[in-house]
Amino acid sequence: MDTALYNASIGRLLFTRRGERASNPLIAQLTHQAFPELAEVLREEAGRITRAWDVAVREAMPQMRHLTFDELKDSTPQILAAIADALASDDPELIGDLIRCAPSQGLSRFRLRFDVVEVMQEDRLLRAITVQHVEAGLRRRLEAAESVALHAAIDVMLQQSVIALVGEKNALLRAAAETELKFLSFLSHDMNNNLGSVTLTLQVLALELRSAGGFAAAEDALGLARKSIDATVRGMRQMLEHERLRQPGSPPAGVRVDLRAVAERVASQFAHEATTRGTLVAVEVPPGTAVTSDGELIGVVLQNLLGNALKYGGGGTVRVGVDDADPAGVSVWVSDEGPGIAPDQLVRIFDAFRRGDVRGQSGVGLGLAIASQAAKLLGAELTVESALGAGSTFRLTLPGTASATTSQDDASLLVAAR
Question: Which residues, other chains included, contact 13 with Cβ-Cβ below 8 Å and sequence gap of 6+?
Fold first, then answer.
């Protein structure tokens, strides 16, 4: 984590120009007035607070008993001193020292493998012990304003500590995810090459068996083996595509995209599968219909929606069209005449690895999750309407308006016939 950048960002977020009350409610409690007496007692009691807190943590959190006193207390004395400085002054610059100091506690807890719950348990113990010792040092109960200010200072410390801890954990998770994605990419590349060689060998064997004659059963077995290999390769490619779209990257391109051309290109990729399944694919996008968007990502969405419709649509006709009358934007839709989707399955249909009634179809349940992820990158909305026995319609609503540069004659293109 870039500490200087982190501190500068926190400073901009939490307080305004010198002498002005901060916009953050917690900081506002500290800049409202100074509490010099409270601060002085806190400084005097800091050592005793730390030792009492150490004992309390070990009793309440047995998993911490293996830590030495120095490991457990870490920067707690410095943070208590920073809290005292913040209470002693209404100067936002001095309060900024607390903001800059507090993350060190979260970073040390990250190194000790604490989780957020454990950090908050520590805070509750430190808070109670601090109030107890401060009131003992004052020989009176805290006044309302003093109590609010002290708790606000501790809350600021906790906020920054947790933010630092979570930031480090997120960075660790991102690094692990990137490593895993690289591993999957290398593995997929090797497996694709190896399975490609196997597929080629199976093709040669099938041709030899066919020329020799009398080996129909063997040919069928080879055909099933090829189908299994193809399904494995498709599954790997889907996993890689899903991970790629989940990674942060540059924003999608904003160029003129011919929706008819994209729909025709995607439909042609499924021409053989549509023929095999006895399904008619009709592109009903008016020629020249265009939007300003990212054509590659729109293609990714349509590939997965059309593949899903062919796999689960149960034959009939699959249509790809556009509605440009929607005030929310331009809707590109894919509709099938299949059995429909049960209402209880619609709720989480775009979740990764979520598969409903697959009717014997292979797959890993990533197609719609990939489409959903691509839609998010486009700033678009992906929705579904379905009724049992009446088919389903998936709709990608893109922001903006459509333009048509040609007439709408011959708007339907039949890509594959039964």
Answer: 24
